[in-house]
Structure formats: C-alpha cells, structure tokens
Amino acid sequence: MAVSKCTRLSGPLIQELLDSVDNFLFDCDGVIWRGEQAIPGAPEVTNLLKKNGKRVFFVTNNSTKTREMYAEKMAKLGFLAKTEEVFGTAYCSAVYLKHIAKLDGKVYLIGGNALIKELQKLGIQTVGSGPDPVFGGQSDWANVPLDPEVKAVVVGFDEHFSYMKLSKALKYLDNPDCLFVGTNTDSRLPLEGGRAVPGTGCLVRAVETAAQRKAQIIGKPSHFMFDCVVSEYGIDPARTVMVGDRLDTDILLGFNCGLKTVLTLTGVSNLDEATAYQESHCPERTGMVPDYYVETIADLLPALQG
User: How far is CA 16 from CA 19, 22, 43, 287, 293, in A?
Assistant: First the structure.
C-alpha cells in the first residue's frame, strides 16, 4: 500500500486496508464512545470486523476500570466484546509487575479500586488507596511510618491524591530497589464542551519530581501495551492497525510498534495538528503522523457492509 502519510481513508483505500490486516486495536474514549454514548456506527463497525474474521482488541490508558467493567460497558452500548479482548492500564500494570518485574511484595498504590482489583487477581497486595489527609508538620511527613513489605510504587488516576501520598511515595522510592510504575502520562482528560481535568500524567510527574526518578510507563505510547496483546494472542505487527484519536498516545504507539495507524477525528487530536507534525520534518513529531485519518470510524461501514 504505497500511500503517503496522513491520507484520507475512503473509497477503495478502505478495502485495501481491510485486506492488508488481520487485527484491529481500538482506543475507547473519543474513538468508539464519548462518555456514556457510543459513537454512531461504532458498534456496527467493530461487530462487523469480527464477523468478517478480523480480531478486535480494545486498548485504553484509563486505569479507573477493570477489564470486566469495560466489557460490561461495551455490552450496554452494543459492542460484542469479551473481557479478555480489553487491555487497560490497570490490567497491564498488574501483568508487568507479576510476570515481567517478578514483584515479591506489596504495592504502595496511588490509584483507585480498579487497580486494586486487577493487582489482587494476580496475587499482589496493595496499601495506600483512599483518602490520606495531611497531618502534623514537616518532621512528621519526613518520618511517616512505612510498610516494610512494600516493594513497588504504582501511580494511576487517584482523585484522592495528596501531599501525604506524595511524601510516602518519595520515602518508598528513596530505596533504589523499590520499583516505580506509572499507568500512563496523559496530562489532561478531555470532557464535553472543550473542558478538561488533570490526568494521571500530572500525578506521575509529581511523584517523579519528588523522588528524582523516572517511572516505568505502562500505557500508550509505551511498547508494553502492545506487548501484552502479543503475549496473549501472538498477533503480527505487520498485519495490525491501531485506531485512535490521540496523536501522542495512540498513533505514536502504532509507530513505536510497527503498526498501521488510523486517526479518527471524533476525539482529542485534529487534522491540523497531524499536518503540522508531518510538515515539521522533526523526527520526534513524525512518529505521531498517522498513515490514514477518518472523520469517524463509521466511515468504514460501507466497505464492511458491502
């Protein structure tokens, strides 16, 4: 498929892409749904892809839901998705700690219930979740008691993030043998109407700054997210396409892993950004230029229905 980058995916090109791949990776928010509403036509697209023999997986940086929670949401919105087809950062973080890092101990967790559940499924105990308000003064913060069984600090989305949690994370990470994992580096979570709230990346960067250490990042654009899918399904990168709405996570993941990439314009990034990256000729930015773009993944429907 000798096509220039950032090409509108339409007409015969859609069928050419479908013929060239066996596996589809979809981001979720901004791609197949917005909030609690499915993107019009998205369930039909993913369901028809499966009917036509394609393997479909869902990869999301969101650490606030378990695989089961995602599968339940998808079922309600009309997607035919199995739990084991969902790869979120809560699940992938647990896989990393259990099977790659071979963690032997507890996790000090800055994160929520989904992370607790995914870690517990693999036999990993956590401490630290929930509110942890500040008490006392600087001497108290510097001498806060630690759990000697903690061997890793994991940072995900945590609405209860506090100065006390930051202090405890710093103390644990003063030990160079303590592992440091961040679920993702998304700095902002977009909301309807152009609004946004701080994302997990803000918390990860705060802990990195305090601890003067870099976290092992699990989510997109880290290669590990794709490695999780490969380890369970043995898919071929050359026969796989990543479909997402963010240039700096979804599209860059595809570039990092040697996948074909499709940007959908129903979410965060826009065509002007992609074009600017392409014209910059900057190596750090060209990896965020998609092979193709669509207005919505529903653009694939005519080819699938035909």
Answer: 5, 12, 22, 22, 14
